[in-house]
Here is the input.
Amino acid sequence: MASKNANDREARAARERLRAYQARQAVHEHTVRRRRRDNIIAGIGIAVIVVLAVATQLLYFQGPGKAAPQAAPSSTPSPSASCPPAADSANKGDVPAASVSECRTWSGTMTLNDVKLGIALDGAAAPQAVASTVSLVQKGFYTGLTCHRLTNGGFYVLQCGDPNGNGSGGPGYSYGPIENAPADNVYPAGTIAMARQGGDAASQGSQFFIVYKKTTIPSDAAGGYTVIGHVTSGLADLTSQITDKGVVPGTSASDGAPVVPTKITSITLQ
Here is the structure.
């Protein structure tokens, strides 16, 4: 009898240990499922935030007022029809003749605050845009104008050249079409390109942007942005002294005036 009772106690103890083990396993499995679910929810949340940030940047990259915005293009650019091209019928105002570009490379310096950038403009690849830029530089148009816009949320550009200082101004004329836009929509660090109104290829004027970090800008109805040249030196100083300092807090944490007030001290070309 004593042996039977002992066996019964051992059996009960074994069943209790089994139930305890099964309970622990159930708790563990529930915890794992909950952790997996929480990770998925967190991942979706992060993805939504990133998508919204990029969508906001695209919404605001709409030329002079909400303008543009994405070294030379990384892929074969869309070619100009001729160099220099015939004047576009959609041009408005006294647009400098494309022949001013001389269809050649212009080298020089752009100074933003105390940051000196070596620059090269490609008059063969973008004759109309380069002609306009050269003409404005020769007139001293850019001296003293601000860089009113900085983006750093998926798009990495510093936009300058608006006489109104708020993205609404220009030189008194506008021109098109888009020239030398990268076929893959990738604008490498150092790219200098013209701002414009969204969907309007003939809305280019004096505003331009410098890409300080590789940026992809999806093409719209106008077909990308005219790349006029690239920064040949000084980009690291631009990022460390100006763009890395961030955007003034406001309606968007990644799109607004740069924290460091930035002015075009001078531009020289030859």
Q: What stands out?
A: The chain has three helices and eleven strands.
